[in-house]
Every structure is written in C-alpha cells, then in structure tokens.
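Example record

One chain of 361 residues, shown exactly as stored in the release files.
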Amino acid sequence: MGTGKRGLLAAALTVVCAVAVLAAPGTALAAPAPPQDTGPAAGASPKPVPDKDLEQVREKLDKLYHDAAVATDAYNAAEEKTKKQSAEIVSLAKKIVAGQRKLAQLKDQAGAAAREQYRTGGVPPTAQFLLSDDPDQFLDGAGLVLQSQQAANHLIGERTDTQKQLQDYASDAAAQWKKLDTDRKAKASAKKKIQQQIDAAKKLESSLEEKQRQRLAQLEQKAALKSQTAWLDTGILDRIHGKASAAGEKAVAFATAQLGKPYVWGAAGPDSFDCSGLTSQAWAAAGHPIPRTSQEQWKQLKHIDVKDMRPGDLVIYFDDASHVALYIGDGAIIQAPRPGRSVTVAGAGSMPILGVVRPDA
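Predicted structure tokens for this chain:
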C-alpha cells in the first residue's frame, strides 16, 4: 500500500473514530451539571430582599431566563449543525475507504497487465497476431490489439478519476471537520452562557424567604394575567375561528400528553423538553418535521396572521423569537416555559407575541 493510500485511509479511519466519539450517547444534548453551590454560604441565612423590591426581582429573573432561552436557541442550532456535519464526515470517510479499495483493485489490474507484458517479452499475445501471414488472423489480431489498448486507456482513466475523487473527498472532509470544530466551540460557549444565567437566577431565588417566593410566584401570575387580559380585551378571540387540520390535531394531542414533564434546556423528549423541543417533536409526531429552534421555526415556516391562527399553529414570542408555544384554541397555548417549570397550559397573550407560523401550510 502506497504512502498516499495509507495517509488517506488513516485520515478516513481517524475521522470515523472522532465522529463516533462526538456522537456518543449523552454527548449531544447532555443537561448541565447542577451547580455545586448556588445558595448562601453554609450556615448563613440568605440576606432578605425587601418586599418592595420583589417586582424588580421578578423583572430581573425574567431577563435572566430570557437570556438563558436565547443561549439555548444558539446551543440547539449549533447542536443541529454538528449532527449534520458529523453525518457528512462519516459519509465522506466511507467514500474514502471505498475509493481506496477501488484504487487498490485498479492497481492490481495494472500490475497484472504489466506482468503479462513482461512474460511475453514485451509483446502482448494479441499483438503477436499482427506477425501472422494469415489475413484473417491479422484482422482478428488487429481488433484484439485495439480492444486491449482501449481497456488500458480505460484503466488509466479510472485510476486518474478515482485518485481525483479521493482528493476531493479528503478536501471536503477537512472542510466539514473545520466547520464542525467551529460549531462545537459555539455550542460550548452557548452552554456556558446558559448555565451562567440559570445559576444567577437560582442564586437570586435562593436569597428569598419562603413567603417571598410565594409572593414572587403571585407576581409572575399577575403579570401573565395582565398581559393575557390586555390581549383578550382587543377582541381577538371574536375573530379567531380557525379549525385544526388533521396534522394540527395530532400535534396538539402530542403536546397535551407531555403536560407536567419538566423543562430541561436542550431537551426534545421523551422525558423533558425545552420550548422548541416540545413544538418540534409535536409536529414530528404529526408527520411534519420542522426546524429544531424557535428562531428557525420563525424564519422557515409560513407566517399566519394572528386572527387566522388555528390549533396546532406555533406562536412565536419576543422580538428575538427566543420562545415558542403550541396554540391549542380558546386563546390558550401549551408551552415548556423555563428552567424550574414544567410543560403547562398558559394564555396565548401572556407574553409579547412576535407572530404565528403554520407548519403544515
């Protein structure tokens, strides 16, 4: 086996092994390790937060969890890219291995032809017919020589084409590996940001007394109710009469079956979900695969006017499309809200609506 062949084959096998490590179970969407110490120092009581500041605490928590959602979308996007790139690299590696086998066969054929020529003293048996005085033998021999030349030219051409393919595959694999490394770094950076925001939120919540936590939960519900009431006061429900499609009904049924399951960032079931993990899996179950992240769902799916939405449509929230939920009718949604919460039913207008998209338009 030549040096070039060994190099390409070694590269292919290295790629396969590396991708296998990347794709190992638990690597792609592993939940972050719980923080070792998110509360006050051992033996110390948390510094109480004055009740008058609880509304500011609620707003700060909203921002922390919103920023965590943005980072989660970035993580999920990078994760999707690494999955595709890993699959492409594995495919290229297989092509390289197959190409090496083909090249080895072509080299064996060329070697056999060379040995035959040497054995006959440099004159192929077919060419010896040209020395015959018999006209029929001469013509037959000329045809055989022509066929032999054509076969040799074809063999040379095949070797050249195979070598070029191998070079192209190797170049493509190197490019994909570079992209994969970039997206792995982006995923790691997003993961770090997610954990920082969640840790900060937990630390802030741990500084509250039990009564204050209860009061904070009431403030959260009050804010959501205020937003939902304002949305309903526009008379929007009087204009929403859309009926779910068959696929939409399946998506709603799937989401309904997940009620009570915990939110985990980067999760897409079956035991936990983040917001876009829930919506993407709901529509996958309905037979219509959609993008994994809320931002890509907003970018790629057909936009629908709010008054025209129907059960199964996706409601996208916030200016940066960092949250998504599944509309189920009667002004309600099913959503995976944030860390520390579970899949639940909420008011469709309880958060700022960016727009509505329809997966099966």
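Notes: The radius of gyration is 32 Å.
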